[in-house]
Each structure stands twice: as C-alpha cells, then as structure tokens.
C-alpha cells in the first residue's frame, strides 16, 4: 500500500485526508442534501460495496439511505468466495477477513452407510479451492462484519461517507427531459420522525434495497422465477457434537430423513446448518407453517444419526423455501429505448435476482454487481466516459445472473433429490461429489466471463496469454517487485480506485533500453494518440486513468532499475515523488514463474488491459498501439 | 483466532468484553487510583508492550503514566526484527505491520568503485532474512504506529486500559517491611496542572521511562558504557534520487567522505538515512555542534557521489553520537540481597541499556524486556507463582543486554572504520558483508538464548528436537490443523496471554488410542501430580494455565479426530463448548514437514514446553511425566 505521496501525515494511513466538501465534516447529523449525484438505497452488501467505491471520489456526491436504524448484527449470508476475496483485497480488507474468518479447505460428503443405511458415513472429500484457482481462500464470516468493513472504508475515505439510517425509499420518478438531477426520490423516515417525507433529486439512483425493492417496483421491474416448494431451516449455533467433521464443510444425505449442509464459522466454535424440512404444498408459503428452531434442531439430529448435536445457543435461525427469481433488466431502460436514452436508475443484488441461500452466492453476486457498476458511474460522473457506458451494466450482469440462477437451480435439484442406488454402493463417484467438483470454479465466482463488447475484446490474441482469458477476471500470480525485491501477488496492485491497468509482460531478453516494452511505454507516455496522453487530465498523476506496469522474465538481481522506461518510474503527487512500484520480475523463491503459470508467450510477451473491476478487457501484442488506442477511444472521452 | 466461546456477541471480536472493574468505564478522565498492582512509567515500546500484556488481566490493576501529553507522531526507531514480529503475532497485530510496513528483503553493500574511487559501486547483496530463519519478515515502520497498535490492544482488552498522559514519575521509595503496596511513587503533573503532585502506592513499579529514567535513578542504577565520539545524523525524508537501490536497505561506504545507511520506509516513498558526520573531540557533545538537517543532506550527497538526493520534505531528523551504555542490574535488589528479598522495582528498555540506533535493536530489545517481565508479574500477581520468580527478569535480560551491547559495539566499530584495501579489489568478500551475514541471526533477534535455570532446562534431551533449542525461542513451522484442514504456523497458536504451552510431537504411527501421546494427555488430565491438575484453578478452563497441543506425523486425512485424547478436545467457557483447535498434522501442500524442519525424532516424538514469552523451557521425551511435574513444581504454586 502506498501513502505519504503528498507529504507525511501521522496516524493510520488507511484514513485518507478528508475532502473539504464532505457533509459529515460539520456534523454526523448534517441535514439530508437536496441534490446528489448518486442515491443508493439499502446498506446490504450491494449498497455498501458501491458506496465504498464511490466514497473515494470527493467530486461525486453520494448518499446511501437505509430503512433500518442500524447495521444488522447477525444472520443472513456468510460465504465469501475466492473471487469476492480478490475484490476485498482491492478495498484493503481481505487480510482482516482472512484473519477473522473461517477458511473452507475441504468439503466432505456424508451419505447412508451402504452396510447400514440408518447411519451416515463419510464417502468422499474434496479440496474446496483448487490449487492456483485463486490466491485467496474461500472464507466464511458473518455478513454483518462484511458490512462493517465496508463502512470503515467509507468512513476513512475522503468523503467520510456514512449511511443515512432510518430513511426508506418510498418511490421515485425519472424526468427524461432533463440532464439535471432527473430522478426525484421520495424518502420516508422510519425513525423518531416516522412517516416524515423528504424529497431528494439525484442524477442516478441505485436500488440495492433487497428482494422487496421499492426501486425495482418504481422502474417497473418484476421478479420472475420458480419455487421448489421445499422448506429449509438455517441456523447459526454454538453446539457440541460427536460428529467428527464438524469443523469442515459437509453435505450430508440421510437415507430417509433428508439433507443437511454444515458450514463452520468464524471463531472456532460457531457453525451454520442448513436443514431440509418438509415439502410444501403448491399453494403453501413457508411462513404459514410455524416452524420453530426446535424443529430444525430435531430434523438435524434425525438426519445425522447416529451422531447428535447438543445445542448450547441458537445465535440466529430462519426458515425459507428454495426459489430463484430475477427481473428482465437491471436498469430503467426497456430494450426498445436503449438506442435513445441512457439509464438513470439501476437495481443490484437481491433487488433484481434472488437465489437459494445454500449455494452461498447471494451476497457475492450482489457485491460483484455493484463492483461492476461503481467504476462506470464514477467514469461518467467524473467526465471520463460518455453516459452510454452505463448500458453495459445491465447487459453484463443480467447474463451472469441468469447463468447463476440456472446453475443454482441445477444444484438445488440435485441436493434435494433422494440419493440413487448407484451412489450408495461406493462404486460410482456420487452424483453430489461429481456435480460439486464441476461447480467449484463457478461457486468460487471464477467462471464469470463477459461477452465480447465495446468493453471486452475478441480472443484474437488470446494465444499470447492462455491463462488470462479475455472477459474473465485477471488471474493473479506471484511476482517480485524490482525496486525492493518484495514477493507479492501481481493482482494485488489493483485497488478499487476506478483506474484501468495495463500489465505489459516483456518478451524474451527484454530489459534493455531498446525493447518492445520500452517502445510501448514511450508511446504511452508521449504519443498524441496514446490513451494516457489523451485521457489524463492536466495536472493529474500520469497513472491516474491508466496505471501501466511492467513484468519481466528475469529475476530482480538480473535487471537494472535505472534502465527502465520513465513511465515505469513516474513522479507523482504534490511533491513530485518518484513511484518505485511499477516494475516486477519473476519470483525467485519457489512460488512459480508467472509467465509459465499464466501461459504468457515468452518470445513476444504481451499486454493485458484490465478494467477497474479486475476483468480482462484486452490481450494484445506489445506493439499493438493502434488497437490499444482504438479500444480506449471507444470508452473514454477527453477531459474538458 | 478464537471467539464466542462464552456465547455470540456482534461486532469486532478483537474488542473483548469489558471487565466491570475497569476504571475507564466511568469516564476517560477518571481520577488516578490511590493504589495499583503495577505502575508503569513511560509509554515507549517497553512500557506499552508490558501494558498491553497486563491489560488482558482484569484481576491485576495496572496504570501506565507518561510525562508527554500524547503519543509521539514521528521519528525514533523504525526497525522491527523477525523475533519482534513473532511476538506481535501473539498480540494479534503482526498482520497489520506486514500490510503497512516496508519489508527488508535484501541488503546491498556499496563501496568505492575499484576503478574510480571517487564513485560508489554496488559490491554485494545479501538476502536479509535467511530462508526459514523465521516465518516473519523484517519490517520497517514508524515507531509511533507500533505504539498505536499496542494502545489499541490495551483499549480493546477487558481492562480498557489507557495511559495517563501528562504525569511524570518524579521519585519513588520502597518500604521493604511491608507486602502491601510497598512502593510509594510521587507523580508530578506536566499538563494543565503542571507541578501538581500526586502519590500512588504500587506493588510493583516498572521504569520504562527511557534513557534519562527517574525510576533507574531512584533505585540507584547508573548507565555505564562508552561513546565513540562520532556524530551521526538521521533523517526520515521524502526525496527523489538517481541512486538505483533507494528502495532497498543499503550500507554505503565512500572512499573519503564516510558512511551512509539507507532504510526504506512504509508507504513506498519515505526513507531513512543514517549519515556519518564529524568526529567529536573527547569532551565534546553532539548537541554543542549545532548540526542542521542541511548538514546531513549535504554529507549524504558527498558520500553517495556520483548519485544525488533531492529532498522534498524532511519529515524528522536528529543527530546523535554512538554509544552503548547499561546498568548493573534491572531491578532494585543488589546481588548481596538476592537471597533475602524479591524485587519490587524494575527497569526495562532504554532505561537500563542504550544502543547505537543504526543497528536497529533499541526498540526491539526494549519490547523483549517487558515481554519477558510481563508474564512473570502476571504469574505472581495472580497467585500462580511465588514472587521469587521475579529475580529471573534481571538475570535473563541483563545477560542478553550485555551480549547485545558487545555485538552492537563490534558492528559500530566496523561500520565506522575506513574500508581496507583488501575489500575494495573485489577479491575478498568485504568485511562489512562478512560481518553482516554473521550478525543476521543476531539482528533478527533470533540468537537470544537463556541460560539453564529453574525456568530453562538442560540440553539432556535436545537430540529429540535438534531444531528447537532449549533456552531459545520456539521456532514455528507449518502444520495443518486436523479439525478443519487449515494450513497454519504452529507458533501462531501462542497468544500473549500468560499461558504455558506444551507441544507434544507424536512418535511414529502414533494416532491410535494407545500411544505415548494418549498416555501423556491422560496423565496430564487426570493424575494428581500433573501440573494441569495441580495448578489449574477450579472452574477455570482446563487449558487456562497450560495449553496442551498435539502434532502428528500423518496428514489430516489419515487421522481420526474422534480417536484423539479428550485433553486435545476439551470443553471450555461458560457454555462448555468443545475446542477443536488443539490437534495438528504435517503440512500436505508443499510447505514442508515440521518433523524434518525442526529435527524432531520421528521414532519417539517428544514434548516441547514453551514459556508464555515463547521461549523453550524444556525438551522432554513423551513419557517424562516426572520431569515435567518437577519442572512446573519448581515454578508454579497451587491455587488457594
Ligand atoms: C433472512 C435472510 C436470510 C438469508 N440467509 C442467507 C443465507 O443463509 N445464505 C446466503 O448466501 N444468503 C442468505 N441471504 C441472502 C443474502 O443475505 C443476500 O443475497 C444479500 O444480503 C443480498 O444483498 P443485497 O445488498 O442485495 O440486499 P440485502 O442484504 O437484502 O440489503 C437490502 C437492504 O436494503 C434495505 N431496504 C429495503 N428496502 C429499502 C427501502 N425502500 N429504502 C431503503 N432501504 C431499504 C434493507 O433494510 C437492507 O438493509 C439471506 C437473506 C435474508 C433476508
Ligand atoms: C530522539 C531519538 C531518536 C532515536 N532514533 C532511533 C533510531 O534511529 N533507530 C533506533 O533503532 N532507535 C532509535 N532510538 C531509540 C529507540 O527509540 C529506543 O530504543 C526505544 O524507544 C526504547 O524504548 P523505551 O520504551 O525503552 O523508551 P522510550 O521510547 O524512550 O520511552 C520512554 C518514555 O517514557 C517517558 N518518560 C520519560 N521519563 C518519564 C517519567 N519520569 N515519567 C513518566 N514518563 C517518562 C518518555 O516521554 C517516553 O515516552 C531513538 C531514540 C530517541 C529518543
């Protein structure tokens, strides 16, 4: 992490200098603003992930309202997949989740013992995160803590952003005839002044207001989908048991009593159980059945026989029915009008797609939604891109949500089906295990791949980097920084700061002053057609829009730092200090060679253009300056 | 990290439940107490490390006073050696230092270019932390931040401890005729009520009040030592340079202009330089020479020619002269009286030994002093040990300080000596480099070895664990936890909580229910002579005094958890919840086999008894229950 570029300041470097414009400077209870750039509804994972990203830009006024009086304390989701952990790294709190959370290392499959079907037996075990699928663990932690980490990022950001609790979005209208804060939002107080309303005008509104979203309703969205008419209980408990795998993720299928999913939790004692309860009748809702926590505990004990659970404290519990539902689009522009106008209102997370909790996707996908939207809003509001960019949010995320609902659906079907004979005799690999393995990349959040578009290039040059697929997330790998010989993950240079990144991988023997990387760097720094030259605002740091990094095939002791192109050693900030963290070498301490690990063409090298949300936009030859210029010309606009 | 053993509680798990007795519960400005168990003078690294440790024990009343009005903001020490990082792990903030600090990976040696002695040239490079010497990096970070991390541990502890700023220890007297708070301390206010005095009575006083310690003076201590009559300048600067190794630690020797030491700092831009200034006359003090920051910058530029430094901001600077001084003992008991009375007053850190800053030892040794003292004070004050234990503090730490002063002295001599011809022709390895390599273990803080005593066993069974030497710190290695297959460092199970640890390494094929580890565990749990049985207070957790852990030679999938002895699966806390984190296996993912790495006898296994400050007290065969009982009988006393 970098700091002090504008001069030394004591204390916690995560606390950024406050921008003079921040509303909270006067008082935490400063009155609501009349107008904002962005109004976010809801402080769930989707809303907070967006707010944390926008909080870094003092030139954008953002407000986030929440109907509840405060953050939640327990319950709801708890699974953080590896992809989300990679994103947390960019927000600066992955280390905290790693330290505090439970790590899912193994998933165990328990099924009726073929010798005695009244007893369950462990029949399989799978490593939960495949080697080198991500540098991050699959972590489990209370959703409330994730909220707190985002809230801390917001509080520490220049805007000192905080939610306005006790305000609910009641309704909104869009006036498509103006560009000046066209969305009028009616907020209603849910606190001490309950019922009091207040009108705020916004340039953009993002509904992160959960499954019953008022924002969705206001733009005419409807959740479609199906329900499996199956009740499940979920509980977070402190309990003792003679079940030996209680600190590992377990999928348990009994012969006649149904299924249980065990998810160990943070702190070493707590764990979660998803327990299959009764089938529901076609017209029956789970709420009408009056299930109790005791029903869930009793069912769990039946399913897990001969083992038993002795519950000491029920921390949280709930019952739900399996269902998957989503809306037709994630913004306010019907397909028929896409060519004519740009979106003003968006929905994200549960507001536009809901999932079966057991697959552990809801919270992850919700955050990935707004991580996709955040930089696009920032680009438009900071004058870096045309507002038509905002169409790509619904396009990209709707397709992903659809894929997720389909996979999720398949998984739930398999989980709820009675085990077939073939999987009990130990002959076949059980269907469970097979499907689970197939799904690992998917449940890790790593299978997301955006289709070719103005944001995502073709696979024309994919052969130059076979392990870094265009449209998928940039897959980190170990490197060593040239200036200080530090081992680190290349992907960790990406912060959630709305910047683009170009990783230039040097060809063989590159490192001299006359090489493809040098020529690319010099072109980027000086040529009139270079996106760095064209799109960087005068007076801003040269890497403020596009952050250029070099990766060499040599080890750190084989390269000369003073021979590096000047774009890889730029001066920055108020004091004009030199940045020494742009050049990387291969790891020399046994963690692996990034060129081999990611299939980078050693002879030619290549450049990989990565979006602010960590997805790969382009893989190009080092000399493809025309393609590079054309790509950015299709997205960015010149500063005024 | 473990939490929720007494039931769920939302929010940050590092914030412990407040004890009802804590003074700050009423108000941050609660009046000073009349009597305390421990009064600590000074909030430098030594004082804060002690306070952070005692803060965890609500039954001990501790106060820490500081003459200054608040924490420092910049300057002073910045090097955290690997041993100190290991200790920070036990306090829970090593991750923060790792994330925020600079890592010293390589040290470079620059000397006059043999071809042209007016220019410096890089003549050597050494990996700064030898492979597997510690799992921790050598980190560099502002001393003020270390203070803040300790202050946070204190604030979050049950006692909610905070320093009483603006109170200086003026004098103290010890009444050896009473056991009831025999030390009377006169505090004088240095804030708004400047000059006001206040008397506090304490059972123990620890002078962590720096080189001019009043506490030391009060117990008749005097610093003896020598000075090299050589002035050095030190500055923390934001600067640009064409010197290519500016982000690596560098020792630079010029032909005629003297030496410079470069220490890169946190944040990517800041760095520190130690710059050799003039020789002082015999009776001259550095303060009388009126050196300026500009003098130091100018000298640095002369030494580093042909490279130059363009300083943009001087964050902090100082001049000093090299010197090494220490007192004859670190407590108030002269040798002649050791047999008759126990110490009541201690000194730690700079109060009893000062060093040349460049070796980067002062801050580290100061904290190691009080980490040694902290658990001993806690043992005595909580009735776990007899007060004679407190003699061992001065015994152990005085010898270490002496060794440090000697090494430090040698190093300073070499650093200040003009380079001999033999090291300039590139033939020999320069003296610098040779000595630096020899010193690495020492400067890492890893060479500390306490002599045989009631706390430190003999080397009789050392062959059972050749890589875990009795008297030295327990050297961590990778393991996998059986219950959840998590990879971790065995040493990281040790928290700064005043508990002893026994790591039982299983012999070959151990893992069945009839094995040496099982017999040891059962003896520990049940036998009347077992230290666990004898010294654990009724109603306390069975691991509250001695934390027993098992390490097996199998991988996690080869062992059955339900076959483990019950002491390795104890129930704990208010709810009687089972602890699943006591059993470890060898790493199966390529990080190495702990038995091989630490030379553990595979056939017999062994047990390693580790003190609360992470030093190895005993290496014993698994069946040596008599020796184990005798060892603890020599230290612990039975609870009343
Ligand atoms: C009871 C429950 C149990 C769950 N259990 C699991 C589980 O076991 N596993 C799992 O993976 N997922 C679970 N989920 C789903 C998971 O929590 C969601 O997928 C995730 O929280 C979605 O994030 P979000 O930000 O889109 O919406 P939410 O987290 O639902 O956040 C929406 C926020 O908007 C607020 N809000 C609503 N309406 C308004 C309004 N009009 N104005 C202002 N604010 C408003 C709400 O108070 C809420 O804070 C559960 C959800 C619920 C509700
Ligand atoms: C100006 C300066 C520069 C240094 N530079 C370096 C360096 O470059 N590199 C390096 O490794 N080390 C350096 N050191 C040394 C390093 O900081 C010390 O070794 C380390 O801080 C020792 O820790 P300590 O807790 O023993 O004492 P200190 O950190 O000195 O803390 C003593 C504390 O006690 C307080 N105090 C003093 N008297 C009283 C009293 N009577 N009552 C109450 N409180 C009192 C002081 O205000 C101070 O806060 C420097 C020290 C100083 C003073």
UniProtKB/TrEMBL annotation, chains A, B:
Any one GO molecular-function label of the UniProt entry: oxidoreductase activity, acting on paired donors, with incorporation or reduction of molecular oxygen, NAD(P)H as one donor, and incorporation of one atom of oxygen
InterPro entries, alphabetized: FAD-bd, FAD/NAD-bd_sf, Phe_hydrox_C_dim_dom, PHOX_C_sf, RIFMO-like, Thioredoxin-like_sf
Domain FAD-binding: residue ranges: 35-406
Alphabetically sorted, this entry's keywords are: FAD, Flavoprotein, Monooxygenase, Oxidoreductase
Q: Does the keyword Oxidoreductase apply?
A: yes
Specify the Phenol hydroxylase-like C-terminal dimerisation domain's residue ranges: 448-639
Which cofactors are required for activity?
A: FAD
Q: What sections of the protein cross the membrane?
A: none
- Function, please? Serves to protect the cell against DNA damage by alkyl hydroperoxides. It can use either NADH or NADPH as electron donor for direct reduction of redox dyes or of alkyl hydroperoxides when combined with the AhpC protein.
Q: Give the similarity note.
A: Belongs to the PheA/TfdB FAD monooxygenase family.
Protein name, as recorded? Alkyl hydroperoxide reductase subunit F
Q: Which organism is it from?
A: Maribrevibacterium harenarium
